[in-house]
Amino acid sequence: MLVRTAIGTRWISVAMLLLLSGCAQTIPEPVERPLDLVGDVPLVRATQISTQDSLLEVGVQIFGTEFKEEEYEIGDWVFDEIIQKETQFLPHLLKNTLVDSNHWGAVRVIPESDPSLDLIVQGEIIQSDGQTLELRIRAVDSSGREWLDRVYADQSVQEEYPESTRFTLDNTFDAANFVDPFQDIYDRIANDLLAVRGSLGEQELAELNLVTDMLYARDLSPESFDDVLKRDDEGRLVLQGIPARDDPMMARVADMKYRHHLFIDTVDEYYQTLYDDIQPAYVLWRRYSIDQLAEVESSRREANQSDYGNSSGFLSLSQRYDRFKWSKIFEREFSDLAAGFNNELAPAFLELNSQVHGLTGTMEQQYREWRGILRRLFELESGEIGADASE
Amino acid sequence: MAHITENRTASRRTRYLAGAISLLLSAAAFTQDSLPQLDFDLPLRLDFSGSWEKDFRRSDNWEDELTRTLRVRQEASARQQSSPGSSRIPSVPPISVGNVNLPRSRGRGASIVDLARLAEYISRQNTIEITQTRDEIRINRSGEADLVCGVEYELQRTFSSAHGVEVCGWDGQQLIFQIMLPDDLTIMHRFTVSSNQQVLNLLTTVYSKNSEPFNLRLAFNKYEAPRDEFNCIQTLSRGQVCNQSGADLSTQLEDL
């Protein structure tokens, strides 16, 4: 009977080995990546508003995520889904910081790059959990000049999550007095952008405004405005001439731009509403996340210190199994919380994507649809006016 | 003056046009194909889903199994002494999934008695709940974290921590989970379902280093669990939000 059992088990082993032979299952020790932390950063605020010409309009584009080639465990998609959601509302925190600094014109969160704005800030989430936030930020102005392209990282500690973040029915979240644990990262980005802007003269800023106007005009009607911009040796767009101030075509462009900005103001408000709606749950999620990371770290230390020695008695075996079991239960509970967080966010995202009356699809699709409508409108209008003029 | 008239005409026309476009857009119906797409690359698996209760008559009693194992071992040992090399029981090498970075010691493997006690310790559940979709299978045993595996052909890593690593895979239509714990302690669960889907067999194998494995077979019969009266969804800030089965939970989530 034992022979049958042993052979049976060996057969299982062979089957599993065959199963395993297809892929190298090396589970590496977690590698600590050195992070270049931003540290404590005071936001540089303007005491007085700059002149109108030097106020640049900024678009903070919805972030992307960095593709990571790492082994996935079953259920990891839940955490990917959270990062995907963060791409939609972390830009809002950067936008708020830029507004707070008082150095910029209108600052909006936008779903896609927008030719009507002077400066576009793009971001990529490299890592985001309750303890660490790492972002790659790239900022490019309408002429194509790169302002920033660097990685920012910040780490939080549990003390940065005040008691109100562990809210209950009696202890509600105090949004007004809450400071994001990663606020330093946004302050540093805002300060870096300001430093680049400071290096440009008034003339350059005024020209940048004009380039933006022409770029938007060209986006509306490439045929009419193709020759007003040209790339210089450095690949930047420079003006080839400026249409007359009373040019009716430019008046129509300004009219379209005004309408377009009304639209993106509305889109920005939706992102604001989205963030306001989900902020309490998001902060709670991050708090759970930092607690979980602390627990994992403590568990790892405990495992490293465990000396199973030569003991192979039942007590030792059952302890090994129990430690494994509880670490797994703990992680599964955290995954359930993550799924719960996604469930809780779902209605807010549904609301975001069904906001603009008459437009369909995600906010990004609605944005593209809107730009298409404006272009067609501009073509029709220009055609009619052209016909009127010829009559 | 001509410019002003021209601009006014244009402005009026633009307004009409914009109005017409928004009317057209608002009239457009929202259509979306919500039919699920079948992924034919995914293998079809037998249906393990359902509520299962232990069949004590057909399941091993761990003490009886241990006694039997010890007796067979003694007999084999006696045979080996009488004719050396004739009936040597092959030792089972531990299955390796590479460097799993778990602590190891130089000590000997655990005794068959301790392995048997461990097998009993981890197999105490009298009921099992299994849910299965086209993509994954989830095995819920009370007091344990769920065993979850996809239906793919490849070996899947399902969990890893400083305290152990769990992988799963399929051997034909049998579902296997293997747990590797520190000091080369390995636990393997093999789930098999009968073709009529009324009997579930679970073979739990425990071994340590190069010791001989201990096997414990458990049989489960399908039973009709009472239908859950509540339909629940997990949320972060309010825990489980439930309503009576059949009702739509999305409206309750919106009120959160």
Assembly state here? heterodimer
Listing every helix as H and every strand as E from the N terminus to the C terminus, the arrangement of chain B reads HEHHEEEEEEEEEEEH
Average pLDDT number of chain B = 78
Q: How many structural domains are formed by the residues of chain B?
A: 2
Structural class of chain A: alpha/beta
Number of helices of chain B: 4
CATH class designation of the largest domain in chain B: Mainly Beta
Q: Briefly note the structural class of the backbone of chain B.
A: alpha+beta
Structure notes:
The complex is a heterodimer of chains A (391) and B (256). With 391 residues, chain A is an alpha/beta fold. Chain A has one domain (32-390). Chain A has helices at 2-21, 77-101, 183-198, 202-220, 222-225, 248-305, 314-352, 363-390; strands spanning 58-61, 64-65, 107-110, 119-128, 132-141, 146-155, 229-231, 237-239. In chain A, strands 1, 2, 3, 4, 5 and 6 form a 6-stranded mixed β-sheet that branches. Chain A is elongated and about 90 Å long. Chain B has 256 residues and is an alpha+beta fold. Helices cover 24% and strands 32% of the residues of chain B. In chain B, the strands form 2 sheets. In chain B, strands 4-3-2-1-10-9-8-7-6-5 form a 10-stranded antiparallel β-sheet. In chain B, strand 6 and strand 7 form a beta hairpin. Chain B starts with a helix and ends with a helix. The chains are: A alpha/beta (391), B alpha+beta (256). The interface between A and B is large, with 87 and 99 residues.
Summary tags:
heterodimer, A: 391 residues, alpha/beta, six-stranded mixed sheet, two-stranded antiparallel sheet, 8 strands, disordered N terminus, B: 256 residues, Lipocalin, ten-stranded antiparallel sheet, 4 helices
